[in-house]
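Internal tracking record. Fields below are filled automatically when a chain is submitted to the structure queue. Please do not edit lines marked as system-generated. If the sequence contains nonstandard residues, flag them in the REMARKS field before resubmitting.
Queue: standard
Priority: normal
Entity type: single polypeptide chain
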Amino acid sequence: MVRSYKLSNVTQAYLNTYYYILNTMIRRMTSVQLTHSISENFIQQMIPHHLAAIEMSKNILKYTTNLEVQSITTNIISAQTKSISNMQSIQSKCRMLTNKDFEQSNYMRRFEKIAQTMFYEMGSVHVTNGVNANFVREMIPHHEGAVRMSNNALQFNICPELKPILYSIITTQCEGIQQLKHLLKHLDNC
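SYSTEM-GENERATED OUTPUT FOLLOWS
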């Protein structure tokens, strides 16, 4: 967290919850019991990632009056809830497709690099008393991490039912990143 002045009580309350959600996500994503199925591992790693986005969105909704932020967070909650449901519905089938040890090792090496970058960027964003801008700066690396993790999984033999979910994550998160970056320019100019 980078800051250059005293934070308001509202900002501090927002950030306390944000960091709790972030640390919970990190713990859950990094403590997954790995199997020999990249598909299964991806699902187990992505569900806590999506849950964090939902909780982070609910957190900012307690503090924001910005209609665009409200719209973005409502869309995040809806899309990520649906994605979690879709992944859970195929999880037992996907775990049946196993991968060779070298594939699993390559997948995890890339995943760990992507995840560590995302964790660092989300934990060290520039913080101001503008909670809307804080949320946007935090959510951009979160979305970028989902895109990278999905692209990583697509490099390997994964269950066919998972592929459309990954393509949907990539599409929606890339659109979300562009929307968030556009909004951030406006928020930073206020």
